Amino acid sequence: MPTRSDRLAQRLALAVPALLLGGAYLGEYGFGLYPCEMCWWQRYPHFAAVGLALLSTVAAPKRMWIALAGFAILVSGGIGAFHAGVEYGWWEGLTACSSLSSGGGDPLEAIMNAPLVRCDEVQWSFFGISLAGWNALISTATALAILRLLGLRSET
């Protein structure tokens, strides 16, 4: 029988990555904050975490699926920390940048007119912290909270 802390961990494992992904897509499609390659890398573990958290609602052992979701969120936080360090110039990043191309029409024209998004430039920040930095902070804190909640076994 799941404890109260298990249920809270499960809710965090589902809600936080879903909200972070929702925010990323809102920024992308609502405000034109197109993701660079490392931004995409941060999204993939969140997709996995949502899937694992959903799986924990129907498959045993629930705590294992929740823990795996927590670790996936932690991976996204680690990638976000690395990306934030690249943005702030603390270390060298990867040389790859990404651009977006729209489907249809002339493929070469679409590629040539697509915006180039660099991984080492901050597109938006809040209180001096970039989106990658916020992802690092929120994801790491959430993952640690999930793992801590799973480590606590209440006998009530």
Structure summarized in a few sentences:
The protein is mostly helical and 156 residues long.
Overview of the structural elements:
It is a single chain. This protein has 156 residues and is mainly alpha-helical. The protein has a single domain (4-95, 106-151), classed as Bromodomain-like. Helix content is 65%, strand content 5%. It has five helices and four strands. It has helices at residues 4-31, 37-55, 62-87, 107-113, 131-151; strands at residues 98-99, 116-117, 125-126, 129-130. The strands form two sheets. It has a two-stranded antiparallel ribbon with strand order 1-2. It has a two-stranded antiparallel sheet with strand order 3-4. A hairpin with a 2-residue loop joins β3 and β4 (129-130). α1 (4-31) runs antiparallel to α2, α2 packs antiparallel against α3 (62-87) and α3 runs antiparallel to α5 (131-151). The longest helix is centred in the N-terminal third of the chain and has 28 residues, at 4-31. It is globular and about 55 Å long. The chain starts with a helix and ends in a 5-residue tail after the last helix. The relative contact order is 0.20. The model has no long low-confidence stretch (mean pLDDT 85).
